[in-house]
Amino acid sequence: MNPIKILDDVYWVGGIDWNLRNFHGYLTQRGSTYNAYLIVDDAVTLIDTVKHYLTDEMLDRIAWIVDPSEIKYIVANHVEMDHSGALPRLMEICPDATIITSPQGEKGLRAHYRKDWNFKVVQSGEEVSIGARTLKFVLTPMVHWPDNMVCYSPSDKILFSNDAFGQHIATSERFDDQFYVDIIHEEAMKYYANIVLPYSQQVRKVLEDAATLDIEYIAPSHGIIWRSYVSWILEFYQRWAMNETDNKALIIYDTMWGSTEKIAYAIQKAFEIREIDTSMLLLKNNHMSDIMTEVLTARYICVGSPTLNKNMLPDVAAFLTYLKGLAPRNKVGLAFGSYGWGAQGVNDVDAVLRACDFDMIDKISTQYVPDAKALDEITKKVMEAL
């Protein structure tokens, strides 16, 4: 397991999770990496670790450079186990090492692992000398946990950015100019939409702090290291954090007997006439985490369901629960659907979209199967609302 050199005395020593296909409920069709970084200085420093089952892989990579027992500092940017899972094994190998973490990081690590390790708690802006280098720490609470922080090495111009700027990609290539940039962008967008989006306000603060740093490398905790497209990804993060949208509509729905689908296509016709790009997303064929990637930058979010047992369909309810938790902003919502003897499903969809604080178009509801005249009226109604 060879390490990857980033700069002199700075190495990637993480683990590649080739088989990961689900991460916290969102699909990771391309797997992932858990990135750990080793800095060889007077005090050998490891930044983050890996999931527990990749501990040996990480230790093998470290051993190519130094004996793991020589590690003096372990920077724990985040408590979650995909970052900290190797800590118990690592602290058995280097029991005198000091874990550098945030105040909430210390609380979280003590609560999770119940170990009396050596901790050095840092505040935002605090610096720690490791020899020729001085590492600077910036607390980034709620991007996306209370304990989060990032680490910056001024002499290397590297920002070890924790979960910010990450992507779930399993690949032997480590740098943005070695891989397909369109895929990196897609996965970075998906990562933001499914993990970081609810904390966009905090991301804006991180971007302000990052603007004061001289950054040539961004080394996240997952995926590709940025070196050729640093300004590019910073610009995209700025856009996503500001909830900027494209003039695009998503029509997200499920259907029982095809009536709700007829309504969906009547709505799509209205957007097409208005020359607004549209995606049709049948929930049984599209995972909600992939849909959220498109939600990130879409202006119009149309959600449809028939009524089942005085409620919306379960997969529509699941998607809306997921959507509400991720808290997208600056959207226009539309609820639609058909019903037989009770119209509660559309009402429930409408209520959730309103709870998301969307600007709303009046809901569309039809009983039984809409005929051609009803579908034309739906198209006209949506066109008038756009």
Description:
Helix content is 34%, strand content 26%. The strands form six sheets. The chain has a seven-stranded mixed sheet. The chain has helices at 55-63, 81-84, 87-93, 103-113, 181-196, 200-210, 230-241, 259-273, 288-295, 314-326, 344-355, 372-385, and strands at residues 4-7, 10-12, 15-17, 22-23, 26-27, 32-34, 37-39, 44-47, 71-75, 98-101, 118-121, 127-129, 134-139, 149-153, 158-162, 217-220, 246-253, 277-282, 298-304, 307-308, 311-312, 332-339, 359-360, 364-367. The protein is of the alpha/beta class and 386 residues long. The protein folds into two domains: 4-241, Metallo-beta-lactamase, Chain A (4-Layer Sandwich); 249-385, Flavodoxin domain (Rossmann fold), CATH 3.40.50.360. It is elongated and about 80 Å long. α8 crosses α12.
List descriptors.
386 residues; alpha/beta; Metallo-beta-lactamase, Chain A; Rossmann fold; seven-stranded mixed sheet; six-stranded parallel sheet; 24 strands; 26% strand
Strand order of the largest sheet: 1-2-7-8-9-10-11
The structure class reads alpha/beta
CATH topology of the largest domain: Metallo-beta-lactamase, Chain A
Approximate strand percentage = 25-35%
State the end-to-end distance.
Answer: 56 Å
Low-confidence stretches: none
Largest sheet: 7 strands, mixed
> Quick one: CATH class of the largest domain?
Alpha Beta
Helical residue percent? 25-40%
Question: For the CA atoms, what is the radius of gyration?
Answer: 24 Å
In the residues, how many domains can be counted? 2
Number of helices: 12
For this structure, what is the CATH homologous superfamily of the largest domain?
Ribonuclease Z/Hydroxyacylglutathione hydrolase-like
